[in-house]
Amino acid sequence: MSFTSCHKIALSGRPHGLPPSVVYRLRSIGNNSSSRNFASSAARQKERVLIVGSGWGGYGVLKGIDKKRWDVTIVSPNNYFNFTPLLASCAVGTLEFRCAVEPVRRYAPQVAAYQAWCDKIDFGLKTVECMPATPVPFDASAPATPFTLRWDKIVLAAGAYSQTFGVPGVKENAHFLKDVRDARKIRIRVLECFEQAMQPTLSDIDRRNLLNFCIVGGGPTGVEFAAELHDLIHAEMANHYPTLAKLAKITIFDVAPSILGSFDKSLVEFTEKTFSRDGISILTSHHVERVQPGKMFVKERGEVPFGILVWSTGLAPNPLINSITEFKKDEKTKSVLTDEHLNLIRNDATVDPDVWGIGDCAQIEDAILPATAQVANQKAQYLVNKLNKLVKDQPSSKPFQFENQGSLAYIGDWKAIYDNSHKESKILNKESGRVAWLLWRSAYFTMTLSWRNKILVPMYWFLNCDKISPLIRNRISNPPTGIFGRDITRF
Predict the structure, then answer these.
(1) Cα torsion for 226, 229, 230, 235, to the nearest 10°?
(2) pLDDT tens digit string along 280-314?
(3) Which terminus of the chain is more solvent-facing, meaning fewer CB atoms within 10 Å of its CB: N or C?
(4) What does the alpha-carbon distance between residue 33 and residue 357 come to, in Å, rounded to a whole number?
(5) CA distances (Å), origin 267, targets 147, 319, 408, 420, 425
(6) Are 210 and 136 in the same domain?
(7) pLDDT tens across 137-182, in order?
(8) How far apart (Å, rounded) are the C-alpha atoms in residues 426 and 417?
(9) Domain check: are 69 and 112 in the same one?
(10) 320 assigned to some structural domain
(11) Pair type for strands 336-338 and 362-364
(12) CB within 8 A of 406, min separation 6: which ones?
């Protein structure tokens, strides 16, 4: 018997053939259902928050936002978050690639996640046009079908691209280091250079050219990659390719007069002396004019052959940010400008209360901060607190304040530099060597987001360690270079 039939029986008189107890129960059901129909009220609809990007800013908001009170959607061409400070280690095998990523769908089904590019935002209609970043099912050659998403609030955390300054041939012939895929390509290419140089048909000149590793950009990313590559060459490669390792050379090119421009001068000098002792060349005030397959042309030196070229010279605006014309932008970086509450500023100087900008694609007006993971992460935490209060009708008037926790950079051979000299009250303002190395490792360990990676990162650090304790070494005949060493298989 259906519920409708029961309802009709309960409202009518006693049907023939049914006992009084059954009729009483049916009438009770009818009365209760009818009371629910009249007393029910529509549930409050959650406001829609759209997060654009899954970097330090976007993923930070995704992790902390109250998903029970907000209807959250995230759109990103990647379905993962990149832990960028560990990419240099992944590129040489010190860490495995899984150690540097966190899945976006870790928070599904509470969050609707789409792997797609955001092409255009209509701030009047509150819609965004998206293009799938995945191949078309069953026919990869067919064009993808765009789709539109609606939002009530939007967080722009689209990040930025690698800056090439319009140098011809860079995009086609250089490697970048902003994504775990970039790290994988670099790792494959470095191993490929050694395997190619091992072929008996090559001359010594060809081998030296193949094993000439060039890095353009003397910032923290370029310096850390050079240090990690040096560790790889002087540990695993020296053991497995002893003749070729002696031919390998690492050179850093930078247009600035000094590397690590944001660090204290004494720390820069310490890094330069360390690199000089390790055989890493630093060529500042050098300008790359163009890049061709296997060689680049430097204004001050002419033709420079290379086996791999890693390009790390700053950030260029994201195409999505370039397409935005309704809001003010920084003249130099072309990133959108926000107020101290991270809301975007319109061209008429008014603020849009439903639009926020964080990460590398946004800057606070009159308070330009460096485009670092530290800044993006702190902005994300601020915005999480703001959104979670806003949904409870508890607006926060407290402006964003950046707390500089210092800068770290690994410089090889278990050494690093730490700079927090802007705060005179700190006990440890700046440090170099092994103490800074311990700070560097402990900082990255505590910053890894999931417990899975908190276990994997130190485990791989231990297993792939390129040195062992002297106490152990003295008790072993023919001791190994490290615990197990980095994996140098190429596939």
Answers:
(1) 170
(2) 999 999 999 999 999 999 999 999 999 999 999 98
(3) C
(4) 49
(5) 50, 36, 11, 11, 19
(6) no
(7) 888 788 899 999 999 999 999 999 999 999 999 999 999 999 999 9
(8) 16
(9) yes
(10) yes
(11) parallel
(12) 418, 419, 420
Is 307 found in the same domain as 320?
Answer: no
Q: Please say whether the beta carbons of 93 and 488 come within 8 A.
A: yes
Give Dmax over CA atoms of the chain in angstroms.
Answer: 106
Q: Which two tokens stand for residue 466?
A: 């390129």
Backbone angles phi, psi at 93, to 5 degrees: 90, 5
- What residues form DSSP beta bridges with 410? 416
Kindly write down the DSSP assignment for every residue of 51-72, as one continuous string: EE--SHHHHHHHHHS-TTTSEE
Is residue 260 within 8 A of residue 266, CB to CB? The reply is no
Q: Shortest CA distance to 423 belongs to which of 400, 443, 405, 399?
A: 405
Residue 91: partners with Cβ closer than 8 Å, 6 or more residues away: 177, 182, 183, 184, 186, 187, 190, 225, 228, 229
Contact yes or no for 344/352 (Cβ under 8 A) = yes
For residue 93, the Cα-to-chain-centroid distance in whole angstroms is: 19
- The whole domain housing 341 covers 48-162+316-390
pTM higher than 0.90 for the full model?
Answer: no
**How many other CB atoms are found less than 10 A from the CB of residue 316?**
17
Q: Which helix (H) or strand (E) holds 423?
A: none
